[in-house]
Amino acid sequence: MNLTAENHRVPLSDGNSIPLLGLGTYADPQKTPKGSCLESVKIAIDTGYRHIDGAFVYYNEHEVGQAIREKIAEGKIKREDIFYCGKLWNTCHPPELVRPTLEKTLKILQLDYVDLYIIELPMAFKPGDAIYPKDENGKIIYHETDLCATWEAMEACKDAGLAKSIGVSNFNRRQLEMILNKPGLKYKPVSNQVECHPYFTQPKLLEFCRQHDIVIVGYSPLGTSRDETWVNVSSPPLLKDPVLNAIGKKYKKTAAQVVLRFSIQRGVVVIPKSFNPQRIRENFQIFDFSLTEKEMKEIEALNKNVRYVELLMWRDHPEYPFSDEY
């Protein structure tokens, strides 16, 4: 596969395609200055990014939409050049809420459609206005999950043209099989967005998804923030790894660039999040070198099979996805 900065799209099973490198936009709304996401998306588009990954619960989709619209108005891009992924949150799983939730996202973005809409997590929370509905003890109130019913409502959104493609996120093999084996399945998930990087290479899930023509989109592709309130910090920081840095030195590249290149050579889509202009540009400079088979194997051997993002606070949810092997 000849990947270039101008064209690094890979096909999806429904006939659409997805760029292998995208910009993640997750940010803690409490700690992120207003406008940071807007500027970052504009810089990313100017740099050459055409894939933006967002979500309603990041509270910044209005900035993403504004950046895309401004760049279209400048004549820098057309709407069809951009691939935007939005996500259905845990409180919106009941089928009757799926389309209204997507319509709300489109209204915030001020766009007519999203390119990919995914179920963010297989765990449903109690529907309502609270993003994190809690009982009097401060515990999240769960809701009974019927992933197949939610999926049917996602299919209807695709039929209505509100989402070009539909997929899932954080689903394990059992949950994917539940959808794939659903009677009357109309569209299978085109993608599964999961944590994926050299310390957590997901070989079994990757193989399962390949067999079913499901593209893996890797979040936290550079490791993740070291925020111990929600991240497992027992694993060392990925980008300090001596093997990655040694390979980087050979190509005059950073460890981050080596890691991103490793993933795209495996056919894994990556969505590194950065609001730092220099890093946004650096993360895009991965199309002017390639790793040898030996280097790919060396990096694969770094796998520790340990997640950074464990979501342990919800591990008692009946559909918590990470108890299964994969």
From TrEMBL:
Signal peptide: none annotated. This is Aldo-keto reductase family 1 member D1. PROSITE patterns: ALDOKETO_REDUCTASE_1 (PS00798), ALDOKETO_REDUCTASE_2 (PS00062), ALDOKETO_REDUCTASE_3 (PS00063). Belongs to the aldo/keto reductase family. GO terms for cellular component: cytosol. Pfam families: Aldo_ket_red. It comes from Strigops habroptila. It comes from the Eukaryota. GO terms for molecular function: Delta4-3-oxosteroid 5beta-reductase activity. The active site is at 58 (proton donor). Substrate binds at residue 143. Residues 21-303 form the NADP-dependent oxidoreductase domain. The record marks 87 as: Lowers pKa of active site Tyr. GO terms for biological process: androgen metabolic process; bile acid biosynthetic process; C21-steroid hormone metabolic process; cholesterol catabolic process; digestion. InterPro entries: AKR, AKR1D1, Aldo/ket_reductase_CS, NAD(P)_OxRdtase_dom_sf, NADP_OxRdtase_dom.
